[in-house]
Amino acid sequence: MFAIRLLEEGTTQSNVTWLLWVALGFFAVIVVVGWLVSRNKKQEAEPVHEHHEEHHEEHAAHVADDLTVLEGIGPKVAKVLNEAGITTFAALAKADPAKVQEVLKAAGLQMMNPAGWIEQAELAAKGDAEGLKKLQDELKGGRRA
Question: Which of 25, 82, 91, 124 has the smallest set of CB atoms within 10 Å of its CB?
Answer without folding.
Answer: 25
